[in-house]
Fold:
Amino acid sequence: MVKTFVRWLSLLMCVVVIEQSLVLWSATGHAAFTTHFDSERAEQAKQTTNTADLFGDTGEFAGTDAQQIEAPPNRFMLGFLPSLPPGEMWMVWDVDMVSVLTLAGPTTVIALLTLASMTIDRRKRKRDKPSEETGSK
Structure:
């Protein structure tokens, strides 16, 4: 009885963790890769916000109104995949490793193993249970 309760509780916690990671992913913008706030990039975005500033020396925008450039989002966005640069070694404690895959992946494996163990236990109990038709006790 206790074993069954612990297994059901484990499944419930797994579903909660998977659901929370998907909700956070949705709330932060459905990004493919995890991004973090970068103060250097924020300073660069403040300095150049229109096309006349970027391409002023070409003479292309001399007499026209310059178009404003929308800066890419510079905030935390939980991605579906981790965002480590290529060639960098992956470490468990690296902040770039946080993603839906690294949060929900291991939890999904735990949930599947728990379901498998519950199924195996149920089959064992059915097999070991004496049959009423044969009259054995």
